[in-house]
């Protein structure tokens, strides 16, 4: 058994996921499907199981029904409950305040009793909406070896990307000596690579006796945003030993893989990568298995083989229960129980479960939400102006089709969708 027995995982899965709208209109961001079979949260939970971290609280908040059901039916059996292991959902219980979670630190603070009752020596704070493979046991070992009170996982990025990240100033000995929150430009450089900058991955390991008092102090500060990156970590700087842990990727590729799939375009690209010939993110690695909730469906089926009406899928991920009937599917990711009917051409499409595409449809560069039925002859992805009349179209031209698309004469995206 690894040394993770004295560590409790706290996975933040309450974000509204506004930049993934309309996919997050009816579901929490961590519950959005990924790679056909999975939900986004499955990636982090698989990291936990593969790291032997077997006590995990999941803090949910917005539109959590499908996420709660997914965890309950797919993950609670992944641990041995009779050994004190658990993967458990904690909705906002308002035990210590009458508010919903007001920030990442407030979410953890509101569950301070649950954390304390487990009496962990260490608490690992995780986010439920990133795609990466990481052995948290290696991070814990580094935390112990350096004698740190707090350890932050960092990722080397190009300085030009610094405006999207919390930037960490790291000394030559690996200690954290400063922070810059999403700076437009930065003169900081990583001690490990003078051409790169160290960015925070949102993975924090605390000694419990440092974390709990810090949360209590922050909760009493009326001017705080109650956020780990903004408040907790900067306030602890200089008072406690804080170390950076350079991300070690278990994905075993040349380039490090860590993605925030927080925008529709980033989400689309990450899924297209999974379907490609040589994906950067490998779902097929038996040394780092990805778990999910398994539903009972029949095998995928491809039927008809006559000229102009051949059922086939190329460079695509097709899940159980799908039927490709005399249609051509390319570069696409289909979740369970998708049906494509004859003479249709599909290219670069992410289809969630229970989608039905009629005959003679031509669809490309689109995300189709669950339970959407597209009538015969539907054309999507060939004329953005036409698509905008009925669907959401992202700045880079990806069309998002939701269940009630036909109700919209001219659907108006929320303001955060209208940039660019």
TrEMBL record:
Q: What top-tier enzyme class does this entry carry?
A: transferase
- Provide the catalytic activity annotation: alpha-D-glucose 1-phosphate + ATP + H(+) = ADP-alpha-D-glucose + diphosphate
Is Repressor there in the keyword field? no
Q: Where is the Glucose-1-phosphate adenylyltransferase/Bifunctional protein GlmU-like C-terminal hexapeptide domain?
A: 298-401
Q: Which InterPro entries match?
A: ADP-Glc_PPase, ADP_Glu_pyroP_CS, GlgC_bac, GlmU/GlgC-like_hexapep, NTP_transferase_dom, Nucleotide-diphossugar_trans, Trimer_LpxA-like_sf
Please report a single Pfam family linked to this protein.
Hexapep_GlmU
E.C. code: 2.7.7.27
**Positions bound to alpha-D-glucose 1-phosphate:** 101, 166, 181-182, 200
Which residues does the annotation list for site: Could play a key role in the communication between the regulatory and the substrate sites? 61, 100
Query: Keywords of this protein's UniProt record, alphabetized?
Result: ATP-binding, Carbohydrate metabolism, Glycogen biosynthesis, Glycogen metabolism, Nucleotide-binding, Nucleotidyltransferase, Transferase
Give the record's pathway: Glycan biosynthesis; glycogen biosynthesis
- For this entry, list what GO says about its biological process: glycogen biosynthetic process
- Per the database record, which ranges form the Nucleotidyl transferase domain? 9-275
Identify the domain of life.
Bacteria
Which terms in the Gene Ontology molecular function aspect does this entry carry? ATP binding; glucose-1-phosphate adenylyltransferase activity
Instruction: Relate the assembly described in the record.
Output: Homotetramer.
Kindly give the NCBIfam families that the UniProt entry links to this protein: glgC, PRK00725.1, PRK00844.1
Belongs to which family? Belongs to the bacterial/plant glucose-1-phosphate adenylyltransferase family.
What does this protein's UniProt record list under function? Involved in the biosynthesis of ADP-glucose, a building block required for the elongation reactions to produce glycogen. Catalyzes the reaction between ATP and alpha-D-glucose 1-phosphate (G1P) to produce pyrophosphate and ADP-Glc.
Protein name as catalogued: Glucose-1-phosphate adenylyltransferase
Q: Which organism is it from?
A: Acidipila rosea
